[in-house]
Each structure stands twice: as structure tokens, then as C-alpha cells.
Amino acid sequence: MDQDISYKDKKVISIGVMRELTGLSERQIRYYEERKLIFPERSSGGNRKYSFSDVELLMEIANKIEDGVQTFEIRQEIVKEKKKEEQQAVRKRMLQGQLNAQFGIRSYK
């Protein structure tokens, strides 16, 4: 399963490195986590681990906050985008299934 995850989505970055990459303080990063805008994993020692996708997301969040967008609105946008991505993935799987059925291709997973 770990092989299915893109390098951008692997949670390997510490909060200190995240702070350096984004220019945000650790407090700001924790605040965005509290507001359910980002979801770091925790190591066995309890340390937060982030991905490169989280870096990009935090930069987008920081820019929106700077433009005066509220965290609640940002969370709504994130949820809406996630639903859209999930729907696209379902459509893609359905289409692939239809194509496979049409051409007699069996999927082994």
C-alpha cells in the first residue's frame, strides 16, 4: 500500500522543516491543524509529520488568510475540493471498468 502513495503525499517532514519551508511559525502551523485545515500524521514519539502536499496546502492557506479569508471558509473550500476529487476518481474507475468490460480485460488487484 505504501507504494501506491505519491512521494508528495508521504508524511516525512517535521514541523521544524515545515516552518522553514513555509515561513510560518510552529504556532501558526498548529493553529491550522486545530482548525482542521491540515492533517499531519504522528510518529510513534508523537511528533507531527507532514508531506510536500501539506507544504503546498499551508502556503495556499497562508495566502488566503493574508487576503482576509476566514479559516471556516477555507475549510469549506477544502471539503468541497476533496469531494470533487473523490467524485472524479469514482468516475474514472467506473469508466475504466466499462472499458475493461467492453474489451474483455480483467483487473487483478
Q: Outline the low-pLDDT stretches.
A: none
As an assembly, this protein is single chain
Strand % is: under 5%
What's the number of helices? 4
Give the integer mean of the pLDDT values. 92
- Structural class label: mainly alpha
Tell me the major beta sheet: 2 strands, antiparallel
Shape: elongated
Order of helices and strands: HHEEHH
Strand order of the largest sheet: 1-2
- Please report the total strand number as a whole number: 2
Radius of gyration: 18 Å
Q: Can you describe this structure?
A:
The chain contains four helices and two strands. With 109 residues, the chain is mainly α. Strands 1-2 form a two-stranded antiparallel ribbon. A hairpin with a 5-residue loop joins strand 1 (41-42) and strand 2. The protein is elongated, with a radius of gyration of 18 Å. The N and C termini lie close together (12 Å). The mean pLDDT is 92.
Blueprint (SSEs and pairs):
Blueprint: H1 15-22, H2 26-34, E1 41-42, E2 48-49, H3 52-66, H4 71-102
Antiparallel strand pairs: 1-2
In short:
This protein has 109 residues and is mainly alpha-helical.
Descriptive terms for the model:
mainly alpha, two-stranded antiparallel sheet, elongated
